[in-house]
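User: Could you go from structure to sequence for me? I need the amino acid at each position, not a summary. Structure tokens:
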């Protein structure tokens, strides 16, 4: 009878071991599924962040490019104004410069 009692105990241990193995396998499967889900979530989050960053970069690039065009236009206008101002100044004093040069050239010092 002890033999059948031992045999029953062994069967009970084998059943418990199989049940434990099933629990471990289920936990392992659940862990792998969660890791896969976490990886997918991370990839989605990375893609969203990359898209947001790229849009922000493009917007800033457009803003600075627009400013560059405005700066070029402003500088061209300022340059044209300065050239016109110098032409007016030159025409205003050119007669005085010519007179001064003629005076110095024609004056003889002894």
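Assistant: Here is the amino acid at each position, in order:
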């Amino acid at each position: 009878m002890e033999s059948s009692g031992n045999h029953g105990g062994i069967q009970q241990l084998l059943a418990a071991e199989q049940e434990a193995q099933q629990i471990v396998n289920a936990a392992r499967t659940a862990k792998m599924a969660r890791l896969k889900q976490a990886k997918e979530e991370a990839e989605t989050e990375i893609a969203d962040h990359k898209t947001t960053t790229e849009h922000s970069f493009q917007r800033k690039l457009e803003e600075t490019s627009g400013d560059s065009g405005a700066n070029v236009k402003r500088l061209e206008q300022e340059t044209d104004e300065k050239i016109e101002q110098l032409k007016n100044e030159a025409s205003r004093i050119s007669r005085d410069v010519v007179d001064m040069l003629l005076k110095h050239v024609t004056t003889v010092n002894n």
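One structural detail worth keeping in mind: The radius of gyration is 46 Å.
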